[in-house]
Structure formats: structure tokens, C-alpha cells
């Protein structure tokens, strides 16, 4: 399930963004990833359910609270699989 999820469209882009920024809110992710809000929400919820991401809501006295996302320790390890992939591909030619 983990490898399948990491291979989904936009997941790497989202995790790259979260690896660069320790904590980022939903609206900022929308600005950087070319995906509609509904699909982004589904992907983020999947990543939260798999404990790759942590979701926090911050109250600001407004009608809608900001929802922040960050990588969990497990998420950081899962993200490192992208580096393993690069190492394997550079070591062996698949041409």
C-alpha cells in the first residue's frame, strides 16, 4: 500500500513541498501543486490515514480554521524511498 501510494500522481510533489517546508497549510499546497482542491483533499486525507502526514487545525477566530500539514517521522522515512529509487536507477541502467 505504501509504495502504491507514493507512486500516485501528485504525491511526490506534495511530499517534496512538505519536506522543504516543515509545516504548510492547505491553501499554500494548492498554490504550488497543479491539482483541484477536491482531489488534493482526497490525497492529503489518504496520506494522513496512512500516517505519512500529520494534520492540525489552527483556530484563528475566523469561520474557517487553517488546516496545516507536516510530515510525520514515518512520512520522513517513506519520503526517503524516493532517494533509494534514484540510487538504484543510477546504479543500474534500464535502457
UniProtKB/TrEMBL annotation:
Transmembrane segments: none annotated. It comes from the Archaea. Residues 13-82 form the Winged helix DNA-binding domain. The keyword Membrane does not apply. Keywords: Coiled coil, DNA-binding. Residues 40-67 form a coiled coil. The keyword DNA-binding applies. One of its GO terms (molecular function) is DNA binding. This is DNA-binding HxlR family transcriptional regulator. It comes from Methanococcus maripaludis (Methanococcus deltae). The lineage of its organism: Archaea, Methanobacteriati, Methanobacteriota, Methanomada group, Methanococci.
